[in-house]
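Researcher: Last one for today. Full complex below.
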Amino acid sequence: MADWKDQVEEIVFPGKISVPYFWTVGSTLSKWYVQMRDDGEIWGNRCPECGKVYVPPKIKCIDCYQDMNDWVKLPGTGTVETYTVVRYHEPTLHPKKPPFVYGVIKMDGADTGMVHFIDGVKPDKVKVGMRVEAVMAKERSGNILDIKHFRPIP
Amino acid sequence: MGQRVGIIGVGQTHHAAHRLDASGNEIIAEAVSRALDDAQLAMDDIDAIVIGNMDHFENINYVDMWATDGLGSCMKPVFKVTTGGTTGTTVGACAYYHAASGVFDVVLAVGWEKNSESDTQAAIATCANPVLERDPFAGAIGPLATEYSMYMKAYGATEEDAALVAIRDRNNALNNPYAHNRMKVTVEDVMNSPMLSYPVKFLDMCPRSDGACAVIFAGESKAKKLCDRPAWVHYSIVRHDYTHFGDLEWQWMPTLERASAQAYKKCGISNPLKEFDVAELYLPCSTTGVKWMDSLWFCDKGGAPKLIRSGATNMDGILPINPSGGVIATNPIGATALIRVGEAAWQIMGRAGDRQVPRVKKALATGFGGCSWTDLFVLGADLP
Amino acid sequence: MERVAVIGVGQTKYEQGKRDTFHELVFDVAGKALADAGMTIKDVDNIVSISSDFWDGRTISSMAIQDAAGAFGKDITTVEGDGTFGVLYGMMRILSGSFGVCLVVAHHKGTESNMNGITNTCFDPLLERRLGLDALSSAALQARRYMAVSGAMPRQFALVSVKNHGNAKNNPFAMLPMDITVEDVMNSPMLADPLKKLDCSPVTDGAAALILAAEREAKKLVTNKKRVWLLGVGHCTDAYRLGDRDLADTRALKKAAKKAYSMAGVDPWDIDMAEVYDAFSYMEPLWLEGLGFCDDGKGVEYLERGTFDMDGKLPVNPSGGRLSANPVQVAGLAEVIECVLQLRGTAGKRQVKGAEKALAQGINGMCGQSHCVWVLGK
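Model: Here's the assembly. Have a good evening.
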């Protein structure tokens, strides 16, 4: 029996959901971004119960569910916990052209890692355990790209 | 097999058009913290969590994962359900079944939305079939206007009848500190407000809000131990209709009629208007506060205008409807239906503050959404 | 506690570029599951659909498939996440005593959407989303971390691809049956170091359905041979941000597995076959460690020894795994269905002989943030 679908002219409607979005940054992250934008500094916040320091900061400690009002300034240096060299390109997603490097960086003075770009080094020279420091963007507007990237500490 | 389940705590945010002070996770945390306080529990007491919202209102995929910080769900079981407007009751029902199954004991249900973060109507429009109906018949207002004009023609209901519902709910909201729109309005104010889509006017229609609601469900023994007056879940039911708007029977509300008929039968309710002490109904538009009274069996077919005009559903009437101000006062969509459940529970627990209806023993809560479908809860002060 | 059984299963062939609409796919598999159980939609008293507004490109995506799932006039609800979670909700609804027979159905058309763009929306718009992360690049971060902690090497991860694509040759539903070698995997294009094309699961279309029944209903509706019991289940979520977790630590999976084993009253090695979520090759040994089949960091050694081969001590992913077909929402449901077929003894050329107990594991979120573990038995 012939497949009925072979008799069908296949029409496809292209579609796109275009909805504008405006995300409220909220009290905790706003404070973090303002410190970064105005002073070029990276801060973390500390759980009053267990003492864990988070960067980026948290609204509540993920272990204790306590409010986090205790802020600590971090030196902006850290260690690479893991990384990847991205070779594919998604022009609408990626702010950089491949190859570029993402890393999870454990910041000195913090107990959690932070995902960001690692640059200023050949991608194949990046290693787990490498010491890095944050490079702030010259023009800062209060978002995650105010940190331009992390680079190896010479 | 299974266990009986009671609601032992409720929390909600202060709802507003724009909660620019708080991120999505922060409003979730606000509702969760308040529910924990209401139940006098700590996060460690929670065995499992259910969350829901509508994805395209904030453009966050896997909200159950993203909300970990606000929910306090790290290293806990967490579950996501979503069904459009009914999401809140769907979340509540899912938490109820978590506990009723006996697999979990104390379960936190969270519904939230930050409607200020997108274009609500543009996002809702995408629910319609993209090939057939998205262009001509999408968004929430058109279908509701259409069904009420049919009802007006069939039974002689008027625009003023709908306005009576609008002022009932809006003025009730003055007693609710959490409500988004709190303003005293008259029938004239409603009638003179801008026409959106005949016969629906601006003050007939729900707003879009930012807010969250959290409700804590517990199995029988835990509920008795943790709460002196739990709101017991007597019944939870969902009824669906066809998917295409064009297939629906607009002159009545079949899903509400079927869901409520089944619930009343199971709960032994023969005269719902008399036997319920309060109802928190998902009425997205004042017109539905007229038309759907038939479908809830509160009156005969076409009897709704008379019922509304009699004042029977006002705060001092035989069955107060929406003491909280309902959906036309407050509408953070993914939370909206859960607020109905939470408010109904608070009425039974005696914690409804200035909007408390005296001596509530039985309460009805509904959710409405998607393609005209109904979620429904019957709650009671006595064990089911 | 009353037991719940799987009494009917149905799935499409998994492939790219399916011409059927969502509701045609759902109608197809719901019908197949009902036919498998020898019943009609009238015997079903509630439905759990699994769909995603993101992958479907539609708000309230469940609206697209309700009619096809037979939802008219019924109690239906929608889980957004992996199919294993849908099965969990179906079971809880039955155990509550409110329902007797539940249809669980999932659909996915990866070819109608953009995987990287959609998984980018899993990241916080206030933080990492702007960096352009997605499922692939974040998985690469996890793979590298796993290597750093355990000493595992990409060549060992490649063994998973070789094994699972080979297993797929015996599964008529799988999309990518292939005879490949470790060299083929190593020589495939590097996407995000250390992950190469053949370490990654493909974009896939498909649908699956199964029917759950309370013990009393199951015994009425189907014969002994068709019934497979849900013995235990556990689910658990880890922290959200990648930096909040040690990506090589499977603590959430361990907690979920512990609950599932304890509910089922089994130890890991009581399991005869497992379907685990190998969206990327490295995930299989990592999850097998979390599931308690070997010590942390030893997964690849067991893999090299052939423990997880079809003729090994614990055949893993006889279906070909997600590497051979990854219809995202459907994936976990397809795993459970594979377990059912294995336990019924009707898995054809990929049958694991004498399988009495089977395990399926689904994930939600990036890098396996949330896990759902099932133990099923004859």
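Chain B touches chain C through 57 residues (CB under 8 Å). Chain B has 16 helices and eleven strands.
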